[in-house]
Amino acid sequence: MNALTLPLVIPLFAALLGLAFPRGKKVQSAIGLISSLALLVASGWLFSCVTSGSIYTLPLGSWPAPFGIVLVLDFTAAIFLLTCSFTGFAVTLFGLLHRLGDPLERWYFPLQNLLILGVNGAFLTGDLFNLFVWFEVMLISSFVLMVIGGKRPQLEGGVKYVVMNLVASAFFLAGVGLIYGKTGTLNLADLAMIIRDGGSPAGFIKGGAALIFAAFGVKAGLFPLFFWLPASYHTPAPIVTALFAGLLTKVGIYSFLRVATLFIGEDIASWQNLFLWVAALTMITGVLGAAAQFEMRKILSFHIISQVGYLFAGLAMFTPFGLAAGLFYFVHNNLAKTNLLLVSAWIEHRRGTVDLAKIGGFYRASIGCSLIFLISAFALAGIPPLSGFWAKLGIVRAGLDGEFYWLTVAALAVGMMTLFSMTKIWAEAFWKKDPDAEKEGKVELSSEKSHRLSLAPMVMVVVGILCLSFFGEPVFVWSMEAARQLLDPSLYIDAVLGGGEPS
Prior knowledge:
The protein has 503 residues and is mainly α. The protein is built from 22 helices and two strands.
């Protein structure tokens, strides 16, 4: 078996095994833990392979590209794979240490593995149609995860989620059909070569690309297509929101990176203003929405949008340093955002709500949780010397180098507003006294050993944030190499159509 198939085979078999034991919660938990750890190890090993600068390909069924299905692993795909595997492992540990409750407990780990299968497939696929297929795998598993339990808010959020994503799928299919009708291929490398050689009408390519970008915009939660995200992400079980924050919107950004750099590299001038405005407005509207909320998960859901704006800004600048800064930002954001939503889930498990008006006293109840929140929140806001500071510094420097001054000002202003939102959560949930304890004339939340133990996955992610903060230089060097590969489509084309490196 080729190692490139491991990110697909591991979650697929884990999901099937889990579904075979719907009432065996311990068996499912064991399968979930082993598969997540195996996937993390496999992703780490695949990442070590691409550090030589090689691009690895695997034609499935021995059908050569562009006629068969091909898997492709380059620096960008490896960075996304490894980062998402790490946060996926942390979320799995969190699920093992908490009572998820029926029926979520019965189905969570198989569905999580199906979702990871779709995410990994999107990172590795080398053609547009299979990218669509992996999107649908993600959509089905995430919709079930969202509505499982059948509560009214879940169903309302799930309907908004699935309807908007089906509209995105329709856009995607229309774009794919338009491009295939004019070029006769859906292989990304083959399409990039045809576009580069001028072998297809530019108008049709632009039209197809516009439809596909609209679909990616919905998946990524970009302005003005993000409204489904804050309407649905706060409704499922808390652990599901944390999982979604680490995986789903990032696939939309990855797809943008992959397709935009292959399709419009030489025609970026006609798209760049649109991309820059979308990035800035995504940052601004996301953070303004967060500032207006008073419920922890809603605040963090809006912040997913503003942080996606930063990621997209790196792409919109379309410079080596801008793309590298965006990739570094992705690693930082995936860790910080997932951890903040795990903290939110931890609080909700203890109090049954994350409404800031109804909770408080968590600083006294758990110093450990308070430190985890502070480090993750300060990292998200960009307080030095934490990872968010270096990530935002990269975006700002790329903006100044490229003379995108207004985008740079927007990025700095959004950083300040992010800090305001984080201090609001700190003041209400951690610093002020527990409102229920005050009513009952007694103090408050206990700090049982089991609750301290359940902080372990969040501590693991905090260690990742601190490592990125103080020893992050290699990550930026790898991001620069990934940006170099993205901006030179001939490397990808030669690897796929020329057979690629053996793996």
